[in-house]
Sequence to fold (663 residues):
Amino acid sequence: MSTVYTVFKKEIIDSIRDKRTLWTAVLMPILLMPGILVGSFKFQEYQLKKAEQKPALVAVVSGNAAPTLVDFLKAQPKFEVKDVTDAKVAIEDGTVNVVLQVPANFETELAASRAVSVQVQQKSSNVDSSTALPKVQAALALFNQQRVQAALIAKGIAPETLVAIVPTTIDLASAEERGGFIAGLLLPMFIVLFAIVGGMYIAIDVSAGEKERKTLEALVLAPISRLKLVMGKYFAVAATASASIILSLTSLTIAFNLFPPSFGSDTVSITLTPLTLGIMLAMGVILSIMFAGLLLSVAIFAKSYKEAVNYISPFYLLAILPVAIFAQIPGLKPTLAMFLIPGVNATFVMKDALVGMYDLAKILLTLGSLVFYATIAILAAGKIFSKESILFRD
Amino acid sequence: MLAVRDLTKVFGSFTAVDGVTFDAHGGEIFGLLGPNGAGKTTTIRTIATILGPTSGTATVCGHDIVRDPEAVRKNIGVLTAEIGLYDRFTARENIRYFGQLYGLGGPALETRIEELVRILDMGRFADRRAGNFSTGMKQKVAIARSIVHDPPVVIFDEPTAGLDVLASQTVIAYMKDARAKGKLVVLSTHDMAHAQALCDRVAIIHRSKLIALDATSAILQQTHAATLEEAFLHIVGESAAKQDEHTREEQHLQLVAKKKKSFGFRFRL
Fold:
């Protein structure tokens, strides 16, 4: 055990002195995850606010034939009525968002209490146009409602006669759960990412780096078993990657406390409870342990840093792509078999934890399968370190 | 102290060491001679247990290289041709790490490191990081780390390569001192003049086979040669030696071509 510790200690000191490891395992997780997450949430918040405050720009073609409607629209809050000559061009260049086409006999038909056909022109591929459409539709519905009410009152009928049901929708999700859902789209992916990136450089340094510096032969000459040697290196890689997970989660918690993302309302709140943080930490650490073995096994094939990076890049994509895809599919109900895919399983568990769902069976299945993969990875790394054809590959 | 018996190492279709047998004893400097590519380094690596023998075996201080490799490694100190150091560690830290791997620790290790710093004249750079060391400085640290556990058998592969005259003398003085203390020093080199000056007995390896084994003086006498170099040429024949050099160059070129060809398929278990 003391030999394993000797190797572990040496690799940790060596990696602390290495600027590359310091950058990828310490500075990047501290700065990048809070930076990107808080930054993107704040940006979304800003966009939402902007969209809310932005007035709907409406043009009524042949507007002088429908002064009642034009005056009504002008009186609506956050509405601007403009005159345009070409509806299509005006929507495209952003002069207006929605164009209403009214017939020349609008007022006479209205006065005769006959339904008037009004064409609403919008462009669904244009963001401003599609966000203004529901506002315009709501305003037109209100116009209808007011006309109907006035007509009923004039006839001595209570307007409520026409209403059978008044539905009220209540969202049972708490503000924390809604926030957790949003955080679940990005946060688990970052944890998987740092479990790999945090250990990447040290994994290369302790394996291919030994070959590049030409220290490997002297090292394997020492009277220690290859498995102990690998274990020491393995623990160093896993510890560094775990440290980067811990650092990133700590700095994220601080960032969320300092700049709470609320999306402009009090109905969404991203708060990491101790239990959620604990689950994410456990998943992150066990992922680091598993990836450490895989990274070591892959990097030992290489003769140099450059070659090792070439080998690791496809492996990195292979690990992160399914996570990125599965984490983003809305409403995906993962089957139990999906909890056997390394990385993806941890993502599902973390997503659940963020919305306050803790399914013990899924958590245990994920932990079990990750421990299984980690054991295979470390045994494989030990075997590979014993193969002279790989250690002394020319 | 070192008994090598019919040692053979085959890589694919190439036999790098072919049935080598010799004994070497404590209190002598034993030369392992031969041109580059003759099989010296593979012989050393096999004795040092970092490569497994294809057949045959060797014992170091009574420990078999196949059955008890860890005990063998405890009893030998090997200076390999590759003298890389941990660049972000000081000379002292490099030596200390290896000392710990050899099971040393505490004040005993620190005393030993001090002793090595003094013997190999490393005082000026012992506490500096190895990243900017010259070849000579690196070579000294590499020697120190290989003998930090004070082993009874020391195997040096080209120990004075890259060293200036003064540094070479330091290493030579260490080898003589080790011999005087009853240790076995195996010196592997292609530099015949160097070997002649130092070695009590020599084994000459040529084309993976042992072709001569005797006291240095006896070999010179038998071949009526003034130098080991002349003796070597006498034994293998001058034209055969030239032919060998051509073959080696050809093999090297073929290897380079093969590597280029197989570049896309190197990632395999």
About this structure: Residues 238-261 of chain B form the longest helix (24 residues). The CA atoms of residues 259 and 266 of chain B lie 9 Å apart. DSSP finds ten helices and ten strands in chain B. Strands of chain B lie at 2-11, 14-24, 28-33, 55-60, 63-64, 76-79, 153-157, 184-189, 201-206, 209-215.
